[in-house]
Amino acid sequence: MQKHFLCGYEDLNEGDSKGFSLGDKSAGMNNVFAVKKDGEVYAYKNVCPHRGINLEWQPDQFLDSEKALIQCASHGALFEIRTGECIAGPCAGDALTPVPVEYAQDGLYVLLAD
């Protein structure tokens, strides 16, 4: 597992989402996004399980209008923030791939497979 700095605590506000490109471009980018809900940070690979594409059309726009669920901008599938489980749409029953989050003094890190 490789540890990647994601952001400082102040860079991700409650109820917001943010996308990140991590890793060496020559080795392939690792696109992830994070959501802060109820003081916890949840991170997932930025890949729709139905289409294999990024979830957002606009930078950092991963949530529905109520900021209650993660939404795929391509076909509207809805995912639980805490579990990544798809609860509506063509990939119902599938789930986003979670990425472990580590809290440190200087901010948030994610752990990605080598």
Tell me what the structure shows:
It is a single chain. The protein is mostly beta strands and 114 residues long. The chain has a domain at 2-62 and 97-112: 3-layer Sandwich (Rieske Iron-sulfur Protein), CATH 2.102.10.10. It has strands spanning 2-7, 17-22, 30-37, 40-45, 69-71, 78-80, 86-88, 98-99, 101-104, 107-112. A 4-stranded antiparallel β-sheet has the order 2-3-4-8, with no helix packed on it. A 3-stranded antiparallel β-sheet has the order 1-10-9, with no helix packed on it. Strands 5-6-7 form a 3-stranded antiparallel β-sheet, with no helix packed on it. β2 and β3 form a beta hairpin. The model has no long low-confidence stretch (mean pLDDT 90).
* Beta content: 35-45%
Give me the secondary-structure category. Answer: mainly beta
Question: What is the count of DSSP helices, taking H or I runs of 4+ residues?
Answer: 0
Arithmetic mean pLDDT: 90
* Approximate helicity band: under 10%
Compute the number of strand runs: 10
Low-pLDDT runs of 5+ residues are none
Keywords: 2Fe-2S, Iron, Iron-sulfur, Metal-binding
InterPro entries: Rieske_2Fe-2S (IPR017941), Rieske_2Fe-2S_sf (IPR036922)
Domain Rieske: 4-110
Organism: Microbulbifer agarilyticus
